[in-house]
TrEMBL record, chains A, B:
Record protein name field: Cysteine desulfurase
This enzyme's EC code(s): 2.8.1.7
Molecular-function annotations in GO: cysteine desulfurase activity
Classification of source organism: Bacteria, Bacillati, Actinomycetota, Actinomycetes, Kitasatosporales
Alphabetical keyword list: Transferase
Enzyme class: transferase
Entry's family note: Belongs to the class-V pyridoxal-phosphate-dependent aminotransferase family. NifS/IscS subfamily.
Origin species: Streptomyces pseudovenezuelae
Pfam family, one: TusA
Length: 416, 416
């Protein structure tokens, strides 16, 4: 009875029938099960899968498995704000498309996706759209005529250990893996009843305050978006300024190492994230920032959970400039190793982790005449993203990259 | 740090290295992941899988998936106590055996399996043994040189939402499904940290009292095993009388419908189980009782959690005879439909659910001469198990079964 009541409450918040919704052990498991189930259920139609380039790793890794099985995956690009274009989704649809996936909003930069419009073009083509609503479900139901929806309770402030998988009636769905009759055969294992009840109750509770709290948090994140570039030089605020989640704001600071900045802010009592939280143990820059083509250097993501006091935001804005300055001072101390050749100045940044290659580029660009070329040698993968991003911010020309004896040579022409 | 501490505590209780142990969302998921990972990791050796006939449904359903993929599965039979024979496991091993699975103790009848000895023959053959230790881990570590172990926290009195998967170093293991770096890539999804910490703490707590509590509960279950056949006529106590879990006792009552008896006992304040709890929504009898060849009719499983007061057991023994008698009276009221033919008396029990076919057989057997045959027509699957089991209990001869125009005809010869 508790399980039924929780299912009804969650279904009401999602806007679906209770028998379309099952509880999974996490949002990640909901995505894995949802994608695998639709892909298997629609195998006769074909194996083509569409995802956006900025999906959560659970979606992209499911796509990798599907591709490794021999199927084709189309990754739809995003613009500089992190948003997909509805036309790109429409263009990606094929007669053999089994499934399209699109997040309701991005987990790193907060940009909201045009889910309703994408659902419409998918529906017209007879292709189910799976919406990863992990970031937004606490704020409200997902717009439009989607087919499958996934979410995660801890993202809306509920307990760990509960995800939602909603499959609309009429969507062909073949659960994969060993048979288990619990949760309509879509979520194996003993039901975590206490957590499920808490998840449904917390969803109802956050929804009751969502409209009012969204206005308040949006004002606070607007303040961060406006004030950070005034307080800190060489900063790029990323994500869509309007179509975005209320409580997430992300910016990147030139000449700053994100990890070091996180430690500085942590010492001041602020727990923020950098790059992509889900791949933070790898040293490659966030796939989201890379897909957006924005600076990943010194990336900071500030998440304001519901109830965050205004005073905390004000204190963060007081602390941030000093923290960034301290990191820049620390990183900027060493002198670049340069070699002047006939046609270019070579900066040897091999073995140095970003943002050092960009810092060294910035230091030497004033030493070559306008029109001259600098070759930055780097073996840090992040340089591939950050050197072009720096050029765009500093109005210098990014010429391109070449393989070098060691690492890669990034060519920059001084324009100003 | 909390996660590391929980892992160390759990590993100490299991008797493994902390880096061999991961937390999964349930015991079922631990089994699914463990079996799939070893079967994939040892694909080059072959695809042969060995399981016992009385494993938990999570093991048997994983075996079904493996078989559906084209591999061979050997199901090792059990004796009438529910125990496997070590020699049967040894005989089942083949050069292409990828994995053998054996529970530490049975979840329905409490019989302990010879895990240590089976681990030894598997080790000698170079085949990893996966032990489903869900039933026993709270009582102590699993004996012997096993390779993979699974367990479930709620089974030892911990919270829902936590399972354990232990893979010994040196076992080839290839996690299946989408990449996820958490829990060594073996348990995708956001870690349920509060539940994991509680699981480790509760395991430590139950272990501290396990030795003493096992003695006390064993005395109580011994009492049930001894007294029930004295108090209730036509009862078969099942499971090994010695090698068994301290807190589980199972018996079957002739001429009783298990579900109805459960309701009677529930009204008296006792929550017991019948047949197989994991397949209770299906109407077929428990696969465990079927594999043991014992009566499934009127099956009752009594689980005494640690701390169960002696007075509760005494009250149960007071209530049980009346409850069984009430059900027998209710079910025994209708008269059997019989047709006398030249060579047999036909009992038409078509459309009647067990135990009715057995009750009708018992009613009419006195009406035919010794040496005569009765044909019981039944379309209830449970009759296939219960009619032979009744014959064995009542010293009548079970001749065999034949397809009938409708349902199946079960042939019984009166011997006494």
């Amino acid at each position: 009875m508790l399980l039924d009541a929780a299912r009804e409450a969650a279904a009401e918040a999602v806007g679906c029938r209770p028998d379309e919704l099952v509880f999974t052990p996490s949002g990640t498991r909901a995505v894995h099960t949802g994608m695998a189930g639709v892909l298997a259920g629609r195998r006769r139609v074909g194996g083509h899968l569409i995802v956006s380039a900025v999906e959560h790793s659970s979606v992209l890794h499911s796509a990798d498995v599907h591709e490794a099985d021999g199927a084709t995956v189309t990754q739809v690009a995003v613009d500089r704000t992190g948003s997909v274009d509805v036309r790109s989704y429409a263009d990606a649809l094929r007669p053999d498309t089994a499934l399209a996936c699109l997040q309701s909003a991005n987990h790193e930069v907060g940009t909201e996706q045009p889910v309703g419009a994408v659902a419409e073009v998918c529906r017209a083509a007879g292709v189910p759209l799976l919406v990863d609503a992990a970031q937004s479900l606490g704020w409200g139901p997902v717009e439009g005529d989607w087919s499958v929806l996934t979410a995660s309770a801890h993202k809306w402030g509920g307990p760990a250990g509960v995800g939602l998988l909603v499959v609309r009636k009429g969507v062909r769905f073949a659960p994969q893996g060993p048979l288990d009759e619990r949760e309509s055969g879509r979520a194996a294992g003993f039901e975590n009843l206490p957590a499920i009840v808490a998840a449904a109750a917390s969803l109802r509770a956050v929804r009751a305050e969502a409209a009012q709290e969204a206005v308040r948090l949006r004002e606070l994140t607007d303040r961060i978006r406006a004030r950070v570039p005034e307080l800190v030089p060489d900063v790029e605020v990323v994500g869509d300024p309007e179509r975005r989640l209320p409580g997430i704001v992300t910016f990147s600071c030139l000449y700053v190492d994100g990890e070091t900045l996180l430690h500085e802010l942590d010492r001041a009592g602020f727990s923020v994230s950098s790059g992509s939280s889900c791949t933070s143990s790898t040293l490659t820059p966030s796939h989201v920032l890379r897909a957006m083509g924005v600076l990943s250097e010194g990336n900071v993501r500030v998440s304001l959970p519901p109830g965050t006091p205004e005073a905390d935001v004000e204190r963060f804005l007081e602390v941030l400039p000093g923290a960034v300055a301290a990191v820049r001072e620390k990183l900027g101390a060493s002198l670049p190793i340069t070699i002047a050749t006939e046609d270019a100045l070579i900066v040897d940044a091999l073995g140095k982790r970003c943002p050092i290659p960009v810092i060294e580029l910035a230091k030497v660009i004033g030493e070559v005449p306008v029109g001259a070329t600098i070759r930055v040698l780097s073996d840090d993968e992040a340089a591939r993203l950050d050197i072009p991003a720096w050029c765009e911010m500093r109005n210098q020309e990014y010429v391109g990259e070449e393989p070098a004896t060691e690492g890669t040579a990034y060519l920059v022409r001084r324009l100003s």
